[in-house]
Write a structure and sequence with these properties.
Length: 203
């Protein structure tokens, strides 16, 4: 899941200050799960834009904004987009980019895209994977230090954790403590014998 956060409404209005006849595109995937681009948020955005003096021509919520195949597919869902002069996309940057690639209109984002995360036990969990292109998470019990350790340490902890909490971000558990415990529980502490070289770290 792509983790995003909502831009302040004032910032969105500033982005749209020279634009009107706005069509709003939500996203029924990651953005909806984070309450940033599902139907309630899209309807609320339309109402707030109208209250701010903007004309909203319509809205649509594709199953995933990052998988919109064509402008015609948006017209099929809501023909009002043909009257739009501007599109506001309530999705991640990938969704904004894909909508922009099929719509010959100015396209604006309502969200800030932050990281690749997920959901666990009903909670949104950010920054799980740094998308390094060479997945070695197996060596770390499935808990990625590239994505989750602020220092991105691959050869063990920095030693600064206090009571299991990260010295950089005390709100979070030290990821290296989590890695150690997971490998211990699964009988794979031997994986920690691997020493990562500079070459491997920079590949
Ligand atoms: S090693 Fe970590 S950052 Fe790289 S792809 Fe795997 S989970 Fe993502
Ligand atoms: S305390 Fe743990 S998670 Fe935080 S920077 Fe050090 S090793 Fe990484």
């Amino acid at each position: 899941m792509i983790i995003s956060s909502a831009k302040p409404f004032e910032e969105i209005l500033e982005l749209l200050k020279d634009e009107d006849d706005i069509f709003v595109v939500g996203c029924n995937a990651c953005a909806a799960k984070q309450h940033l681009g599902g139907e309630p948020e899209v309807i609320e955005m339309c109402e707030r834009l109208e209250e701010a003096g903007k004309h909203v021509v319509g809205w649509v919520i594709p199953s995933a904004a990052c998988s919109v195949v064509s402008f015609d597919s948006l017209i099929e869902k809501n023909p009002a987009i043909k009257d739009a002069k501007t599109v506001l996309v309530m999705a991640c940057g990938s969704g904004v980019s894909i909508v922009s690639s099929v719509a010959d209109l100015p396209v604006y984002p309502s969200n800030n895209t932050e990281s690749l995360g997920g959901r666990s036990q009903g909670e949104v969990v950010p920054e799980l994977c740094a998308m390094c292109g060479d997945c070695t998470v197996y060596y770390f019990g499935g808990i990625c230090p590239k994505g989750q350790c602020p220092k991105q340490l691959l050869n063990g902890p920095c030693g600064g954790a206090i009571d299991g909490k990260c010295e950089v971000d005390p709100e979070k558990d030290c990821v290296w403590e989590l890695i150690y415990c997971k490998l211990e529980r699964t009988g794979r502490l031997d994986l920690l014998e691997k020493v990562w070289t500079v070459e491997e770290l920079t590949e």
